[in-house]
Amino acid sequence: MPTHYNQLAGRNLDRLSGLSDGVFAFAMTVLVLDLRPPAAAAIHSEAALWQALVALSPRLITWLMSMLTLGIFWIGQQTHHDRLAHSDRAYSWLQMTFLITVTLVPFSTALLAEFIEYRIALLIYWLNILLIGLTLLASTYRARHFGLLRKDASPEGGRALLRRIYIGQALYAFGAALCVFSTYWSIGFIVAVQLNYAIGPRFRPFTWL
Amino acid sequence: MPTHYNQLAGRNLDRLSGLSDGVFAFAMTVLVLDLRPPAAAAIHSEAALWQALVALSPRLITWLMSMLTLGIFWIGQQTHHDRLAHSDRAYSWLQMTFLITVTLVPFSTALLAEFIEYRIALLIYWLNILLIGLTLLASTYRARHFGLLRKDASPEGGRALLRRIYIGQALYAFGAALCVFSTYWSIGFIVAVQLNYAIGPRFRPFTWL
Amino acid sequence: MPTHYNQLAGRNLDRLSGLSDGVFAFAMTVLVLDLRPPAAAAIHSEAALWQALVALSPRLITWLMSMLTLGIFWIGQQTHHDRLAHSDRAYSWLQMTFLITVTLVPFSTALLAEFIEYRIALLIYWLNILLIGLTLLASTYRARHFGLLRKDASPEGGRALLRRIYIGQALYAFGAALCVFSTYWSIGFIVAVQLNYAIGPRFRPFTWL
Amino acid sequence: MPTHYNQLAGRNLDRLSGLSDGVFAFAMTVLVLDLRPPAAAAIHSEAALWQALVALSPRLITWLMSMLTLGIFWIGQQTHHDRLAHSDRAYSWLQMTFLITVTLVPFSTALLAEFIEYRIALLIYWLNILLIGLTLLASTYRARHFGLLRKDASPEGGRALLRRIYIGQALYAFGAALCVFSTYWSIGFIVAVQLNYAIGPRFRPFTWL
């Protein structure tokens, strides 16, 4: 039986890291491009400039939320990644799908910033987070069941990673469901969860997360 | 005889990987920038936003096709790359040409999305895929015939990589030819081939590919 | 007690380097995108083109200032980084925050270029530099007090890095305060300080910095 | 005497490679963004689309020239780089300046594409190439005279690299001077020189270059 392309393809973890870092770096910078300074023609005093900047501030909240989303999943992916000995073709494609959902974050963020009171915009944003989580989850299962893990990767650690995904996604889903009342409730809840994850154990109210 | 620049130049495989990952990461994110959210001024209800998003959906098919194209060739290039011991100047230029054709994907995708029923747009898109394949093929020949391969790179594996390029390009060419009937036939066929490659052996109908 | 996600997460220094290089590379290139060539329709002679380019030149000063800012902090971060044995989750988040403030540089630069005589624009630019410095400082403390340093990282070296941040930020703050007189004084002073840092010991007037 | 920041700073060659690959990858992709597909509203037949694409073709020549410029200097920088054992702060700043001149390529290319018959646009483009060459040259001198070279970097090789820069820049200067006759002569000559460098020894007419 001849050697098959699929046995050789996509085994390089460093390339996957390089592509991932590029995609995340790009998505982070693109998010800022939507924060455009006000047009000079309409501004004639310090007070007017200040007001124009204050008018920009609602966009800061969706921008901050997306930066936290990107940060959380960049660290998450890296942590999963560090447990692997090598990649394979299917794992590479699952990660490629993961990265594709990451590149969608600037789109779903711009949509939500533009239509912050619309439930459809919020649900699309949540769907984006859900897809990022699901592709990460699928990668984890592939890694575990197809022998990609390093010898010293503890099963204990694997369970901690899975628990994190399940609890995190449950909280995001609950947050999204809050849009029955108002999209602001959803956004507030999701940002609170994310800050809790980002700021970390020491200052965080829910240490059991 | 003095040392010549060309003997020293472009031997670093890591730099080639770094540049490639940057180009692919950038091209993937740029593709999403063409998915602009609808303008807020024209939308006054959830239903109107939903319709505006549905109107965006034809662009999703060209976007998905291009993401698959980028994914397939990123994994392909990486697989070829992993067989090399070092690069040389000519190989670096062949790969630079490969990357240049990759940077053209966002252009040919935007063209096809804008003119999805025009055969010229489809043929330019196909020409782009063909050029990516040809430059990858040329790199492979350079690597094989100028001693760039690693000692443990099996000739068997080399043949599997070549077979993949030939069969893939034949299928793309057949798909492009389907535009005699309709560009939608071409796009449908190409996406089907790409999904077959991406989803992989287990679920894939044509395992002999 | 079960293994906790936070003990495993974000330990990879190479990934942090990869993300950082991507963010800095992107921010540097985005800065140039604001230098748009004049529109062809309005230009009908070499002299007119020359004048249009001269009219562009005030933007060059804010562009140069931001390139120096990015260069100084890229080298600064790298120097801190090279003293570390590994990262941890909290350090990764501090660095993520550092990178987020870096992605804001194209925004604050565009704002200052558009409103170069407005104190608010200047103070926002300075606030950006201050935040970059503070997050770098916080990372340094995390690294020192949570055992992330390499065995051979000298305390002497650590003090030199801290001194550099304190003196640099004091000079930036003084420069920003000069906007009481005029924003041009501030910009001139900050550029002078940065050139002093960039051009280095040999030619630099204030070697004690 | 206390340890000085400047003795510790900017010694990491890998970070310099990472930043450089990011900047080049980004510049290559940004160049393509200026090739916009024609607007759908104005096109109503295959023939009209074909004509609109043909009308785009003059931009292809400046685009190709800039891709060659980026490729030549990416390989050039990499070749110099591979001779180094480590970097230092001054070398990092020289390379940062090199990268800044690289980020200007999309700007000077867009200017030349827009004003292809204007000598000022051509001279600015040439000035850009000159600055890239000069900063690379300055880096080389720094590396040689401040002990940054690897033990096994042959002086012979160093001379070959310098020769390449001097001859290349002399040819670019001659090409730029041809704009006394016409900017098209300059562009044609520069593209010919670059293709000669890119296509390499085997097929190239001037093997003594």
List strands and helices in order, with pairings.
The structure is a homotetramer of 209-residue chains.
Chain A: H1 5-8, H2 13-33, H3 46-81, H4 89-103, H5 105-114, H6 119-145, H7 155-177, H8 183-199
Helix pairs in contact in A: 2-3, 2-4, 2-5, 3-5, 3-6, 3-8, 4-6, 5-6, 6-7, 7-8
Describe it.
The structure is a homotetramer of 209-residue chains. The first copy, chain A, is 73% helix and 0% strand. By secondary structure, the first copy, chain A, is mainly α. Chain A has one domain. In chain A, helix 5 runs antiparallel to helix 6 (119-145) and helix 7 packs antiparallel against helix 8 (183-199). Mean pLDDT of chain A is 88; it is low at 204-209. Chains A and B meet through helix 1, helix 2, helix 4, helix 5 and helix 6 of A and helix 2, helix 3 and helix 7 of B.
Briefly say what this structure is:
4 copies of one chain form a homotetramer. With 209 residues, chain A is mostly helical.
Shape of chain A: elongated
In percent terms, what proportion of residues of chain A is strand? under 5%
Distance between the termini of chain A: 50 Å
Oligomer: homotetramer
Helices and strands of chain A, in order, run as HHHHHHHH
Mean pLDDT of chain A: 88
Q: Which regions of chain A are unreliable across 5 or more consecutive residues at pLDDT < 50?
A: 204-209
Number of helices of chain A: 8
Helix content of chain A: over 70%
Give the structural class of chain A: mainly alpha
Per DSSP E runs of 2 or more residues, the count of β-strands of chain A stands at 0
Q: Rounded to an integer, what's the Rg of chain A over CA atoms? A: 20 Å
Largest protein interface, residues of each chain: A-B, 43 and 46 residues
Number of domains of chain A: 1
Sheet with the most strands, sense and barrel status of chain A: none
